[in-house]
Amino acid sequence: MKVLMILVTAAVILAAAAAFEIYREVHSFTVTRYNVTSPRLKGLRRETKVLFLSDLHNRIYGKHNERLLQAVRKEKPDLILIGGDMLVGKPDEPFDVALGFVSRLPAVCPVYYANGNHEGRMKDEPEKYGDAYTDYRKELERCGVTFLENEIEHLELNGQKLALCGLELPVHTYKKFHRSSIDKRDVADLLSHFHTSNDIMAEFPDKAPDQYSILLAHNPAYMDAYLEWGADLVLSGHLHGGLVRIPGLGGIVTPQGFFFPKYSGEMTRAGEQTVIVSRGLGSHTLNIRLFNTPELISISLISAEENSCNDL
């Protein structure tokens, strides 16, 4: 009987500790910093800071998200990239939290936004959402946000030519317990409809050696296709870190119901290509995170020459 009481007491203590940790993590965030270099980053005149935000899902950090905004400002970014799901795509969910936060970012630096499945759902189902997505996008564009809906934007930043690619997969590729067949041809086909001033083909990463390509692709389940397509840097989210993370194994489960995904919340290098998957800034429906603190990702792009000098 005494042993049973000890076991019950220990179980209660562990459950209480886990509940406290889940609550703490759901209501906090951290800044995760990565250094990225590549032979294609030859034009950079200086280290360039890129912030990547994903999966806010209307989460609020301080009044009007002031804590999160201050963290963004503190990083002094040159560029902000948004990987989708900043709102919650449900008919009864307003988008004012996401709108209020994202609309203030262009005052910091240029902002580019690629949709996730929640924005995609709102756009594809006007019978449920009415003009909600159109209104959301128009208001953010009025504030200076550039949307990339299967589009590619060419720009030069600190001497480096960049190609920012926003991939928007069909909503059906996010279905529960289902993994669609997506390959590099599908990626190329989706991105072939973009409009660009110099009319480079969708397979341009192999044809423009002086450009560094960044692909915003919300769902990391199809990472092999993104890498085969030829992106230099792939930024994804969607998985919320796998809900619970186990050291050495990563996230446990994906929103589509698959266990132990290959990419769930980390930086991985594949030869000269780099993959960064965000654990996201929020959650919805299942508000559970354990050993999986939400994150704002800060990426330092470093020229190949500068990196080689630092290695001497």
Envelope shape: globular
Helix/strand/pairing class, anyone?
alpha/beta
Spatial strand sequence of the major β-sheet: 1-14-2-3-4-5
| Alpha-carbon distance between the two ends | 66 Å
GO biological process, one term: lipid A biosynthetic process
Domain Calcineurin-like phosphoesterase: 49-241
Protein name: Metallophosphoesterase
GO molecular function, one term: UDP-2,3-diacylglucosamine hydrolase activity
How does this structure look, described?
InterPro entries: Calcineurin-like_PHP, Metallo-depent_PP-like, Metallophosphoesterase_sf. This protein has 312 residues and is an alpha/beta fold. It has a single domain (2-310), classed as Purple Acid Phosphatase, chain A, domain 2 (4-Layer Sandwich). The chain is 28% helix and 23% strand. It has nine helices and 14 strands. The strands form three sheets. It has a six-stranded mixed beta sheet with strand order 1-14-2-3-4-5. A six-stranded mixed beta sheet has the order 6-7-8-9-13-12, with helices on one face. A two-stranded antiparallel sheet has the order 10-11. α7 crosses α8 (223-229). The radius of gyration is 20 Å and the shape is globular. Residues 195-202 have low confidence and may be disordered.
Produce the secondary structure layout.
Layout: H1 2-26, E1 30-37, E2 48-53, H2 66-75, E3 79-82, H3 96-102, E4 111-113, H4 117-124, H5 126-129, H6 132-142, E5 145-147, E6 151-157, E7 160-167, H7 184-191, E8 211-217, H8 223-229, E9 233-236, E10 245-246, E11 250-251, E12 267-270, E13 273-277, E14 295-302, H9 304-310
Helix pairs in contact: 7-8
